[in-house]
Hints:
The chain has about 750 residues and is mostly helical. It has 34 helices and 6 strands. Strands 1-2 form a two-stranded antiparallel sheet. It has a two-stranded antiparallel ribbon with strand order 3-4.
Amino acid sequence: MQEFLTFTIIGLSTGAIYAVVASGLVVTYTTSGIFNLAHGATGMLAAFTYWQLRFDWNLPAPLALFITLFVLCPLFGVITERFVMRGLQGTSEVVRLSVTVALFAFMIGIANWIWPSDSSREAFLKFYEGNKVSIFGINISWHKIITFGCAILVAIVLRLLLFRTRMGVAMRAVVDDRALTELNGGRPDRVAMFAWALSAMLAGLAGILLAGEQQLNIEPLVLLVINAYAAAIIGRLKNLPMTFAGAAVLGLLDAYYLEFSDKSWFPHSIMGFGISGMRASIPTIVLFVALLARPQSRLRAGVVRIREQNKVPAWSTSVLGAVSLITIVVAISGMLTRSNTLLLLNGFTFAIVALSLVPLTGYAGQMSLAPLTFAGLGAIAMSKLPGDGNLLTLIAVVVIVALIGALVALPAIRLSGIYLALSTAAFAVLVTKLVFNQKQTFMSGNIAVPVLDIPFIEINSPRGRLILASVAFSLLGLGVVAIRRSRLGRRLIALKDSPAAAATLGMSLTRTKLAAFAISAGIAACAGALAGDKVSPQQYDFTQSLPIVLLAVVGGVGTVGGALFGGLMLGGNSVLASVVPTLKNVTKILPGTIGVTLGRNPSGAANQIADAYRSLANRWKLLAFAATGGIVIWILDAQYVISHWAFFISSVFWLLAVTSNLVGIMQAPRTRQIIASTYLAVGVIVAISIDWDNAVDSTGKRLIALVLLITLFGVGAQRLTEHAPRVHRASPDVIGLTTAFTDEELDHAERELGVVI
Length: 757
């Protein structure tokens, strides 16, 4: 009995930490509508900050706690809300969730940069380390007592805040009806800022308490929030008492499993499959059950008005893009070293995984956080099925994983928005903990995926696999374009725009969602099946999926080009870290830094880049000129007239600085045409003629020189071709608010309104 009470106390202590974390999630979601996936990362960063102040700089514990929890954490929350989250109004759930993933990646990068792994680091001591209190014969550490007290204090403070203060009334009003609150003189933005500051404080408190139990390890601290998801969902993301009760249940289940798993009668395998990962999966299983127990999401009338815009892709543009991509890869693949070829191949693998999100998330609006999980299942199937990697085996892999995707989606199909995203996250964690760690799947830690066997074609070399990856991406991309232009594509778009209208017109939402999930899983399976090398389960971990989802949305999850942009950016980040060691720390935070800017451009970078080149459409002479220039540069490199670095720099310069300015030059007055053309010609000569291998002594400096060249000549030529200077005008929304109406503006308004005086 005493042992049972001991584990009960351990479970309640763990549950207390979950409760503090989950309450912060509930506070931010109910006031801003954003589910903060970076909540655990905030607690991790606060724990490292407290360690720095308390144990490395030897500040007194009360002072270190005050600075961390009452100064830095609220400041971080305020900055996050004001400069990141506030710009997400009018964006989809996908974009809002992706921005929190960006924050997640950014904070992990910051922690790895400032506090790299160091075994000699001074230990993170518990509060009153070594001191215990005996209660009913059970020794309880002061740290656990403080944890209990903090959870109770948080519950009391939140109750008083929400029901006894003016700010609490405003917070509850924002939850009920944000627009009505604003019409009655409320300040929803100020309320959201306060909520994010409070949430950061709660995350910081939980992080410090957990670090005392588990020491300073980034992964368990950031994944703390995943365990707290279940408690927040049990409370329906709005009921704090139910959230605390759910947290207690989670803690007790974990502790009781730890107690009974050591008993002789407890099974350690089921039908030959080990269950060593069951304890870590308990919060995820509870989360999945809680999600399935939710009432079905109601269909809301009307069309969702969001700022993302993606046009229907044209066949001519799509085929030209596919052919161009394959041609470019074939041309440059012979110039790359083996290591760089493998890194670029990795980028194409990520691009195929990102492409799987285009029909599911970009077209149908259904969020998935498990794309790499299906890629991992594809790799396992490719290595286990007979055929030694022939085309029939690949087809069988795609069909099998697509069916798995449909089966997994079936119980979660009644969910939508954040609840659907969390159900896919739960599936990814369960597969990681219970499937990928089995000897039947990944053997001794890795498996060999056979190279695709195509008759009469040899692709065993890294270059051959790279070309195969580009061909596979191009064919799959054309398939996705075909889906978008088909009847199914129109059904997917209708599902995203207005599920209620689609259902009213007789469309089967269930079948449409299942088709989207099956197609997405099948495409992701191709990425794993085409690996053609040894792979490990860590490559398909749930946390590895998050950067892919993020960069797919950054690139433009509604377009094939956006998937390519996101995948190559993720692969290029690895290339940059390897060729420029001095920028290794910068690459840790680069994806997250880019992702937090999504509020300014929710349609993605690919759409923004396409706008710059869209004016070249149907201008065949200019397109031919641009293509000829690229071919000439390639011939110069192939004939060893210029170095490989000169080829790279001049090619990028030609694409970004010259091609994007061709239409502007043709439309400019004659004098400006001559000046701008001469100016760009000088830039091309500089890029080609310099021996970059010897003139510049490091890769980092060469890349900086490339950026300067594009900025100096590309942007300069754009300014030369403009007919009139740029005039920055104030927004018309503030006329009459920040400045008085002029007489001319008043007369114009009266004429438009038909006012007669």
